Amino acid sequence: MSALTTDPLEELKRCNRIATYADLRDRLPVYWSSVRPAWIVSRYADVNGILRNPQSVAVEPAKSLRLLGQRGGIDLSSLQRFLSSMSFFTHPPTHDALRRVLAQAVAAIRGPTLQTSLERYADQLLDAGLRKGSIDLVDGYGKALALSVIGGYFGIAESDISRLSALIWELMEVFEFTLPTVKNLLRFNDCAHELTEYFARLVAARRLNPTPDGISTIIRLFDNQLRQSDEEVAQHCLTLFIAAEATTGAGISAAALELLERPELSAKLRTNMSLLPSAVQEIMRLHSPVQCVLRQLPADLTVADQTIRAGDSIVLMLGAANRDPRAFTDPDNIVLGRAEPKPLTFAAGAYACIGMQLATLEVEIGVRKLLDRRSLRLSGEPPVWSSRRSFESLERVPAVFVQGA
Amino acid sequence: MTHEEQLRDWVRQHLAQLLDVAPESIALDRTLADYGLDSVDAVLMAGELEGAFKMEIDPALFLRFETFEAMVVGLASAMNSGS
Question: Among residues A138, A243, A373, A375, which is most buried (max CB within 10 A)?
Answer without folding.
Answer: A138
